[in-house]
Specification:
This protein has 2 helices and 8 strands, in the order H-E-E-E-E-E-E-E-E-H. With 144 residues, the protein is of the alpha/beta class. The strands form 2 sheets. A 4-stranded mixed sheet has the order 2-1-4-6, with no helix packed on it. A 4-stranded mixed sheet has the order 3-8-7-5. It binds copper (II) ion. Copper (II) ion (CU) binds next to loops.
Length: 144
């Protein structure tokens, strides 16, 4: 029994320290698992620089794109088409806000933290629909 445990622990350490970039899937849904309408699931993701998010068009009528001025300096905005599955790689540390354009006013947004970054002071400020702001706030709170 003891030798087995040692082997399992060694494997876990090896996996945790592996530097291989990961791809994490985010579903675009008409209804989340908690019943709320029009969501990205999960709505908060923490990545290491170089990791990729894959947006899955599970339900129709959604897209994924950057919310202007809510991503780190030097990063590039992206814009997926409606019903398009896209993969976005995040190289620069910081916080990113992402929206589904058709359901932005309904609060279809998510937050991505890359590396260990402080939330920028203006991340939740400026022009944001109330529901988008509420959900973004909740997503940020998840990450703190
Ligand atoms: Cu949507």
């Amino acid at each position: 029994m003891f030798p087995k445990l040692v082997v399992a622990t060694g494997l876990a350490v090896m996996m945790a320290s592996s530097a291989v970039a990961e791809t994490i899937e985010v579903q675009m849904l008409n209804k989340g698992s908690d019943g709320s309408p029009m969501v990205f699931e999960p709505s908060y993701v923490k990545l290491a620089p170089g990791d990729t998010l894959k947006f899955i068009a599970t339900d129709r009528g959604h897209n994924a794109e950057s919310i202007m001025d809510r991503s780190p300096e030097g990063s590039e905005d992206f814009k997926g088409k409606i019903n398009q599955e896209i993969e976005v790689t995040f190289d620069i540390e910081g916080w990113y806000a992402i929206q589904c354009k058709p359901h932005f006013a309904m609060g279809m947004v998510m937050a991505v933290e890359v590396g260990d970054a402080d939330v920028p002071e203006d991340f939740l400020e400026g022009r944001l629909p109330r529901r988008a702001k509420d959900r973004l706030e909740a997503a940020v709170a998840n990450g703190q």
